[in-house]
Amino acid sequence: MDHDAIRIAYFSMEIALQPGMPTYAGGLGILAGDTLRSAADMRVPMVAISLLPRWGYFKQTLGEDGWQHESPSSWVVENFLQQVEARTEMSIDGRRVVIRAWRYKLRGGENPESGNNPGNDKSGGDSESSNSVDIYFLDTDMEENSDYDRSLSHYLYGGDSHYRLCQEAILGIGGARMLAALGYTGLQRYHLNEGHASLLILELRKQQQDLLNSHGNSDNNNNPDNITEAVRDLCVFTTHTPVPAGHDQFPLSEVSAVLGPDYLLIGCEDLFCFDNKLNMTYLALANSRYINGVAKQHSHLSQQMYAGYHIDHITNGVHAASWVCEPMQRLYDQYIPGWRMDNLSLRGALNIPRTPIHQAHQAAKQKLLETVNSLTSTDKQMEPQFFTIGFARRAAVYKRPDLLFTDIGRLKSICGKFLRLQIIYAGKAHPNDQQGKLLIQKIIRLANSLDQNINIVYLPNYDISLARLMISGCDLWLNTPRPPLEASGTSGMKAALNGVPSLSTMDGWWLEGCIEGLTGWGIGETGGGLASKLTEQSEDRQRLEAGSLYHKLEQIILPLYYQNQLGYLDIMRHAIALNGSYFNTERMLNQYIAKAYY
Questions:
Q1: Comparing C-alpha atoms, which of 358, 273, 323, 311 is closest to residue 493?
Q2: What's 222-245 look like in SS3?
């Protein structure tokens, strides 16, 4: 597709594309990659901008004491990406910084596990295709730049506040300039996937000011309201977090020093600057034609947080073809042909016989356990006949990975009734999150202290490959965030596509996806019961939710799995038919097209 035919520019700090490319930290990057895959499948005229972290986010290793250690996640950029000729530049701290870009051509139908390197395809990487999306990773590691400026494209989310501001300036301002240098002249919408790219708006405002000035220097042309409206019509903003700490803020003095005086002295600062700080979220809110949260509940909460702005909702999804394991893919190909390009047809999973679903799941489970057993000691070996729970997400206090261990005695009693329980954990803590690291250590120490009736492993360096194994090979997906702090979550959606039901607190997407006893099970009361009676961080709520978790496991889930296999397989079929067919990026992107892009 010609560059001047592209209409939508998608900006994201991180984008996950392949296991060998550490260009993502977690869920935000996974969502971005899945969104762009569906854009390629659906021939949406889109281009994407991100940063190139040459040393990745980090590689996680776990010491014998359970403590997380970080090291660079090095990779050979040229093996995956193709450098483009275009260059742009900007000023950072008064220094000229040159920016180049590396292209990844994401073609429709590409599997993230295929090992294809389309951005560096010497036999056809430069050929144009309407069934593809070009993704450009911005890079400052060039001889023309100072050592510090070269380091700005080394680590994802690395360094201090100043480093972060410089990176976000490259993403937003440098990204807009790079698109112009590449010849994208027909852009009508700029989609900001979270607030990291919000400085894009300042560049668009500056461009609009320059455009108006070129048509005459009248008072009307220089009216800040005119500039604001022109830029607002271009921008779409998706907010992802209800946690205040997740919204970047930078002192105006620091912003002025990094960017120079031109960007903030253009009017309307009162809309997005508070306490002498530039608030990246409010910058996006004040300058976007369409704003959305990533689940119904999240949009309601965001509406309360950001009074005065209309916050719509588009619930997240996942790219179905990327996350369905091979045994299930073969099954769907047999019974639901065309499901990859028509995800809604997965509702036909209710017509798949139970036996082949069981066989496909067992094949995925066997592959997962073989991997787990190859990474763990002989006394932690797992067996396919035992019920296996999966829990994998960023290790953070509000996600409560230790809720399952609130009452160890109760957990042991439950396991005693059903011979054995196997639990597989994975997930990284941010390098600066000491509490998250302590949670990982706590779980590993518990795993070492419990007997074989509760077999727990914590797998290091969670990535796309490990995620694909876990969400398809476990028998149950556990999610225990503290409501209302889970904006959406997508791991349970991936599990559902593979017929794996969830057991989750009632927050994020699960408020929409949980049909009790049909697609999975909820932890705690629903319909405002528990949530309306107890504060979100109270010890009483923690105790009651843990009790609900234990009750569901002991009285409903484990008896169903061990004593009524056909009943459990029916739950699996409904997880696919009801949740897999809806919570996907095909549906999600169609909603963005209808509500936000056109």
A1: 323
A2: CCHHHHHHHHHCCEEEECCCCCHH
Domain count for the chain, please give it.
2
Burial 289-321 (b: 16+ CB within 10 A, else e): ebbbbbbbbbbebbbebbeebebebbbbbbbbb
Tokens of 7: 């209409």
pLDDT digit string, tens, across residues 200-239: 999 999 888 888 777 765 555 567 778 889 999 999 999 9
C-alpha 598/C-alpha 596 separation (Å) is: 6
- Is residue 393 included in any domain, yes or no? yes
Within a domain: 594? no
Q: Walk across the sheet containing 189-193 and list its strands.
A: 82-92, 95-107, 132-139, 46-51, 8-11, 189-193, 235-238, 290-293, 312-313
Q: Could you write out the DSSP letters of every residue in 443-470?
A: HHHHHHHS-TTEEEEEESS--HHHHHHH
A 10 A CB-CB count for 210 gives 9
Residue 558 has pLDDT above 70, yes or no: yes
**How many residues would you count in the chain?**
598
Q: How far is CA 326 from the centre of its chain?
A: 23
Distance of alpha carbon 232 from alpha carbon 234, whole angstroms: 5
Residue 527 has pLDDT above 50, yes or no: no
Distances (CA, A) of 246 to 33, 194, 563, 574: 21, 10, 44, 35
* Residues sharing a CB contact under 8 Å with residue 324, sequence separation 6 or more, in sequence order: 332, 472, 497, 498
Same domain, 69 and 158: yes
- Residue 345 structural domain: 320-584
Q: Are 174 and 88 in contact (CB under 8 A)?
A: yes
Question: Based on the domain organization, do 122 and 211 belong to the same domain?
Answer: yes
Distance, CA of 447 to CA of 405 (rounded, Å):
10
Which residues lie across from 502 on neighbouring strands? Answer: 477, 520
- Distance between start and end Cα atoms, the chain: 19
CATH classification at residue 396: 3.40.50.2000
Q: Are residues 431 and 557 in the same domain?
A: yes
Note whether 544 and 450 are same-domain residues: yes
Global pTM exceeds 0.85: yes
pLDDT at 216: 67
90 φ/ψ angles, rounded to the nearest 5 degrees: -155, 170
Strands, E, within 451-584: which ranges?
454-459, 476-479, 502-505, 520-523
Q: Please indicate, yes or no, whether residues 387 and 452 belong to a single structural domain of this protein.
A: yes
Closest to 315 (Cα-Cα) out of 344, 331, 293: 293
Do residues 324 and 468 make contact, with C-beta atoms less than 8 angstroms apart? no
Rounded CA-CA distance 442/129 in Å is 50
Domain-embedded: residue 412: yes
Do 254 and 398 have their domain in common?
A: no
